[in-house]
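Bug report (template v2)

What were you trying to do?
Predict the complex of my protein with calcium ion.

What happened?
Run completed; filing so the output is reviewed.

Input:
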Amino acid sequence: MFSAQHFSTGPGFHHTIAVGDLDGDDVPDVAIPDSQTPAVTVLRGLGDGTLAAYAKWPTFTEPQDVVIADLTGDGLADLATADYTSGGVTLLRGLGSGAFAPRELLAAGSGLIALIAVVILVKLAPSFR
Ligand SMILES: [Ca+2]
């Protein structure tokens, strides 16, 4: 039987959560947008059911939602947030170690509250190549 554990996400306003492997160790990690700081709060999974202490990665203003996906096609997990007032989406390019490059703003207008990352994997049979 499991008992509840609490892992601090630090100060800020946290609305949603995303789970994915951000550092390539095959252990799920947690990312949470913090609209107050503003930042994405990341807690790395340690593989034993616990999470490491949080780290905050700066975003543009008022991130409301976060996705984890390889958005740049380099095979590494990236983070993107839907920002309510920044005028777009914050992209944090993953460096593969669980660290991220400085924030980039992708213009997409104001009032964003949610993101969906769609990854389509197509594996062609040898006869179709
Ligand atoms: Ca991981």
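What did the reviewer find?
The chain has a mean pLDDT of 88. Residues 4 and 32 are 19 Å apart (CA to CA).
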